[in-house]
Write a structure and sequence with these properties.
This protein has 226 residues and is an alpha/beta fold. The protein contains 7 helices and 5 strands; from the N terminus they run βαβαβααβαβαα. The longest helix is centred in the middle third of the chain and has 15 residues.
Length: 226
């Protein structure tokens, strides 16, 4: 029996969440990572690294490549859609980097796994985006989805997002206090050998490190300095 399930992508938010669950809440959650055709597939190895280092056995990487046609309009998946620079999405409530209904789909699968294994909670790393917004990372989304799952007549599963009101800097501050190795995380949507430093998630990441006065340990493309 497991007590919880954590969705961990390999980025700052979900990796920090996993460390928080293990070190602050003394949990050993089942860890699920999704491979859905994302350009930044290298984040998956980062998820493996942290799950292994924290003693979370049975980490599962679920292959959802067959869902790529559903996500064809997203810059994170479509090879013919360019990843935008941060300036292009600033203030956009649903930018081209949004993956249609991704969190709803992933959470549904995680809830099914949790219910099948007798776990009462599913955790995901929703956060308050600094530059743009996704509807499926909001407190309203979390509240409404939990209303739906409370309809379960026998084994209701609760979805939790401890960082839903946190900025990226807030999450980074929490992670540094937990001694998270951020060199073993990946944020850049481009998924190259070096981070681009210009896409929305690179910009949020770099701004968070700068706000805390801490150098980001990731390599960045020197031709595209932030």
């Amino acid at each position: 029996m497991i007590d919880s399930v954590a969705i961990v992508s390999g980025g700052i938010d979900s990796v920090t969440l996993l460390h928080h669950l293990v070190k602050n809440e003394q949990r050993r959650p089942a860890v699920i990572t999704f491979a859905y055709g994302q350009k930044h597939v290298r984040e998956i190895e980062c998820a493996r690294t942290h799950a292994r280092s924290l003693g979370c056995t049975g980490h599962q990487v679920l292959d959802l490549q067959m869902l790529r046609p559903l996500f064809a309009g997203s810059a994170l998946v479509a090879t013919d859609v360019a990843v935008p620079a941060a300036e292009a999405v600033q203030g956009d409530p649903q930018p081209i980097t949004y993956v249609p209904n991704r969190n709803m789909i992933f959470l549904a699968l995680a809830v099914a796994y949790a219910e099948s294994h007798g776990a009462g909670e599913v955790f995901y790393g929703a956060q308050q985006h600094d530059l743009y917004g996704y509807w499926d990372c909001t407190p309203q989304f979390l509240e409404q989805l939990n209303r739906v799952y409370r309809l379960n007549r026998k084994n209701a599963v609760r979805i939790r997002a401890p960082f839903v009101d946190f900025s990226k800097a807030d999450i980074l501050r929490r992670g540094l206090s937990l001694q998270v190795d951020y060199a073993a995380t990946w944020s850049c949507y481009e998924g190259r050998q070096a981070a681009c430093g210009k896409c929305p998630t690179c910009t949020e990441r770099l701004n968070a490190f700068a706000e805390l006065g801490v150098p980001d340990p990731l390599p960045y493309d020197r031709q595209n300095p932030c």
